[in-house]
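From: lab user (bench 3)
To: helpdesk
Subject: output format question, protein + S-adenosyl-L-homocysteine

Hello, I'm new to running complex predictions and I'm not sure whether the block I got back is the full result or only part of it. Here's what I submitted:
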Amino acid sequence: MTPPSKGIVYLVGAGPGDAGLLTVRGRELLEHCDVIATDALANAAIVVAARRANPTVEVFEVGKRGGSKHSLRQEDITALILRLGLEGKRVVRLKGGDPFVFGRGSEEVQALRAAGVAFEIVPGVTAGIAAPAYAGIPVTHRGLATSVTFVTGHEDPTKPETQTDWAALARAGGTIVLYMGVKNLLRISAALIAGGMSPDTSAAAVQWGTHTRQRTVTATISNLADAAAGAGLAAPVITVIGNVVSLRDEIAWYDRRPLFGKRIVVTRASAQASGLHSALEELGAEVLELPALRIEPLDQAALRATLEGIARYDWIIFTSQNAVSIVWEAMRAQGLDARALAGRRIACVGRTTSEALLAHGIAADVVPARFMAEGVLEALSARDDVRHAQVLYLAAEGAREVLPDGLRALDCRVDVVRIYRTEADGTGAVALRAALAADEVDAVTFASASAVRGYVDAVGPSLARRAPAVSIGPVTTVAVRDAGIALIGEAPEATIQRLAQAVVDALSMTDASAA
Ligand code: SAH
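Helpdesk reply: Thanks, we reran it on our side. This is the complete output you should expect:
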């Protein structure tokens, strides 16, 4: 037997928000640890990626978020990581920004040290430097600021117990970077001005810095509190005070990207989609991914009975590759194989479906040029062996009736057997539906006709029509139009880069026409 491994707690800085600002060491530990205990401020995408690489990892969300009901107290968080460390686990305690900058990381380490639990510190990119940088504000600049002070704005400066000498900061003349300070901004500005700072000193408040929803308000120190409140800025906000703020006009870059502030949906979880995801992000967009669909087979008894009588059908129609795999599994469970379908004619709704069938040794007789129910109907009506036929239609729950109705109009006898249901996976689907319902999606990208169908399945036909589409080419465009979705752009060539550029073109045109 191997002895239990010794526990260790890694205090890892997650960086300020942008998931790309996690350190290499931090990612390595996330991918190999047993447990992650994460803060509310650490970007959730970092944990999602860690889970993908490290599927057995256990995750505790221990965020303390402005007194929310579910948040743990600091003592409870410390107790949790101590317990896990003592149990021999390798624990990543993931903290927003840098663990030792206003993060209480050092208190957690003191407790680990006292209990004899091993630890390691992985510094992170702190919000106080990164949020200004993404707003185009360097915290030092030759000739403008020779020092920078990180200060917490958590303490009310009018209270006698305040530990910060605001007058001394006002006199120091360097850049002041304020964490946790939005609520006290008015009182802090007043204390700085009372301490001798010029009321005309430039200042900026950066909310959600380095996130795609970053917002920046600039003003002078005397009116920043009003301007920030007027713009509705609330935590998390970094406030920068000092002459360096004037450089923003010249240096701003992140919020000048062509898709900054836009929300774009990517509809396919595949290697191709991840290329599109990063291309759109580099253009500044916030990307929502269509969550993976879960396939739930329905009542197998009906399918079993159908398979027993399969010989009476002239035609079998498969609506998707899921239908193919469910039917194949059911056949195998009954000791059947491709020979059971000998003599039946077979139609598929699309090419992926026919390829799935071919993998089982069955070549479809009909694969329509238009990959949808109407296309199959067209192709079948053009044949002379369909009228009066016995047809088996294998479909998903909620599939449209276009095809069975159309076939009945051709005097066919159609048995519709619903063999599975698709369910969009939990939280991602909820977030996407909410964004669509609130009209917060600027465009949905489609890189294939099947992606259009997957999207309509996942969010439902009426929500699907709430946001306009950009398509990768003519075939996909037809599917978009058939789904009743407005089209605002089509890539001139079917590549991911051209698709991303088509999004930029389409949205800058809609902006121009709105202005
Ligand atoms: N350890 C963290 C700071 C934790 S204190 C770090 O090094 O960044 C929490 C405060 O950090 C927030 O109230 C806010 O002032 C600031 N903050 C953290 N992330 C931020 C972000 N993305 N944008 C703006 N401020 C942020």
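A quick orientation on your result: The chain has four domains: 8-125, 129-256, 263-292+425-514, 296-423. Let us know if anything else is unclear.
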